[in-house]
Amino acid sequence: MLQLMNQLGMMLRQHTHEIAMMILATLLVIYGDEVNRLVKKSVSNYPFIVRALIFVALCAFGYGYLLIGFTPILASWIYTIPLHLLGPAVLGLLLVLGVLAERKKQL
User: For residue 70, how many other CB atoms are within 10 A of its CB?
Assistant: First the structure.
């Protein structure tokens, strides 16, 4: 059984970067609406053009920077998970993301 878990871990280890990006992108989808709402409240008194520019900057640069900037960090954390635990850890993370999405009415 341990050998099978290690093989699964080796297969997943090759995709650590993609797994990290998937986790972060999912979190941004789940919680992005709340961030947008907070920014909308804080810039509601500004003229339309300023609000539009702030929204575009938040979506294009803010979310993009978060995704690109934190993916290598999360990937390095995932990479430290022992091979035989990597499969269950990724599965557990996916289940947690599913529960979070369900609680936020995203599913």
Answer: 15
> Could you tell me how many helices (H) and strands (E) the chain has, helices first?
5, 0
Give the integer Cα–Cα distance in Å for 100 and 23: 12
- Other CB atoms within 10 A of residue 12 CB: 19
Three-class SS of residue 80?
coil
Per residue in 77-97, pLDDT (tens digit) is: 999 999 999 999 999 999 999
List the one residue out of 83, 89, 57, 90 whose CA is nearest residue 2: 83
Tokens for 12, please give them: 């997943």
CB atoms within 10 A of CB 85: 13
- For the chain, the first-to-last Cα distance in angstroms comes to 34
CB 75 within 8 A of CB 17: yes
pLDDT tens-place string over residues 50-70: 999 999 999 889 999 999 999
